[in-house]
Amino acid sequence: MERPRPVVGHIVTRFEAEPDLLQRSISAMRGEGALEPEFVAELGPLEADPHIVRQVTKLSRPTVEDLDPEAFRLAVLHLIHRLYIGGPSLPLDEQVRIIWRIPDPDSADDEHY
Predict the structure, then answer these.
(1) Which of 18, 19, 70, 92 has its CA 20 to 30 A from that of 79?
(2) Rg, the chain, Cα only
(3) Could you give the dihedral angle defined by the CA atoms of residues 96, 30, 66 and 11, in that order, rounded to the nearest 10 degrees?
(4) Residue 9: per-residue pLDDT
(5) In terms of pLDDT, which residue wins out, 10 or 93?
(6) For residues 36 and 94, what is the distance between their CA atoms, to the nearest angstrom?
(7) Residue 40 burial (CB count, 10 A)
(8) Cα–Cα distance between 93 and 113 in angstroms, integer?
(9) In this predicted structure, which of 13-27, 44-58, 80-94 has the lowest mean pLDDT?
(10) Distance between CA atoms of residues 73 and 53, nearest Å
(11) CA triplet 102, 12, 25: central angle to 5 degrees?
């Protein structure tokens, strides 16, 4: 999976600003009710791998370049409820729209980046 740079940047920024974001996002995800079987099937093996989980919990600007694709995928699954990638014809600030599991407290529009 290619990591879209704007998405990686937003994830790292949120991790730095909110040290408990991962745990709150996992709790929110589990509280959403019944998860889709396909989602659970993808999430299960990633959560079962201690190396992948460790990479996600230690995610920061210095570690992001060494992040395995599976760890990036796990971070996305835990933190992001929906992700929309628009076309290159859109202005840069409208090309990526993230709907976080936990709304961004610093954003006036907590869904759009």
Answers:
(1) 92
(2) 14
(3) 30
(4) 87
(5) 10
(6) 29
(7) 11
(8) 6
(9) 80-94
(10) 11
(11) 25
CA distances (Å), origin 75, targets 3, 46, 94: 11, 10, 22
3-state secondary structure 73-90: HHHHHHHEEEEEECCCCC
Distance of alpha carbon 31 from alpha carbon 99, whole angstroms: 16
User: Quick one: three-class SS letters along the chain?
Assistant: CCCCHHHHHHHHHHHHHCCCHHHHHHHHHHHCCCCCHHHHHHHHHHHHCHHHHHHHHCCCCCCHHHCCHHHHHHHHHHHEEEEEECCCCCCHHHCEEEEECCCCCCCCCCCEC
Q: What are 9-43's pLDDT values in tens digits?
A: 889 999 999 999 999 999 998 888 788 899 999 99
Per the CB < 8 A criterion, the answer to whether 69 and 3 are in contact is yes
